[in-house]
Amino acid sequence: MTAGRSSDPVITPELARAFWAELRGPRAATHRSHHVGLCDTELRIAGLRLSARGSSTADGGFRLSGGCPCRDLVADAFEVVWAFVADRGHRFDNLAGAVRTDLRFRLVELDRRARRDRGAPVKPQTVRDNRYGRALPDEFHREVFVMLADEAGARGPLRGEAGLLGRLADRCADKFGGHAATHAARLPQVLRTVERVCRTGPRVNVGTVSAPELVTWWEAYVERPLGRRPDPDSPTGEEPEILDHDTSREFDRIAALTDDAVLALLLTEVWPAPGTDRDDALCEVIRVFARRGLLPHRRALELLADDDGRQDVLERLEHVSRRLP
Fold first, then answer.
1. Which of 37, 71, 107, 204 sits most deeply, having the most CB atoms within 10 A of its CB?
2. In 3-state terms, what secondary structure has residue 213?
3. Could you give phi then psi for residue 51, rounded to 5 degrees?
4. Dist. CA 137–CA 131, nearest whole Å
5. Is the pLDDT of residue 180 over 60?
6. What pTM value is reported for the model?
7. Alpha carbon distance 134, 142 (integer Å)
């Protein structure tokens, strides 16, 4: 969003500080669950620089940066606050207090929505008592199953299978005591048992009613969402360094379709033959990407309902196509 438009809400320093203060507890919980030693999330807005070191003055504009898992929480929470101020901000004398109250109740919803968008269990604790949790041999296996479901929908990067094993070993040490290395030696067999159990039973449709794609519970709720977490060691898995609302319009608001490599894949693999209506084809591609986990379902629905947004995508595709060999 570009500053100065009448439709943009005014974010004052007082409001920015209130927003940051309300996130202190949730960010700390994210840091604990991810064993974060140093948080590098930084939000610049309303002439302030907000970070783990506190607040200080900064240049204007809006910039969110950092690689800490809490960064996604900040981005999602700010989206809620932006909408709240734009829609209802004029109703309150104490807007900062109203924002904090609204955000306090919305944070749980934010976490569940983010987990749902990733395709992970919305309430990971409940898997302990589902048909797969009950089929596991003991409490240790069930607790690891809960941790695994939680990691599947967690925020922040994950360094492949080794990173997952390390995360689970640390969590087991916190939960059961002992050394993480001891748990790490046992976990591969435990994970094989959990996977074997979760690959049984009825299939889950991760496609649509008209184009079903049936997979096991393990693939739908563990394997796929874990695969959507970015790998900081992989160039194709890195998230954008910054979220900049001055440049987040048009194509850049569709997170999975922001680089030329993805666009080239779209053009070469699923782009229609000459004479086919390109908007219809793009709608189908959006659905395909959503089924494959390349595009969050919420984003896909937004784009399918946004004619102007799709036109932006089509124009960007034309630009990219002229540079392809």
1. 71
2. coil
3. -155, -175
4. 12
5. yes
6. 0.53
7. 8
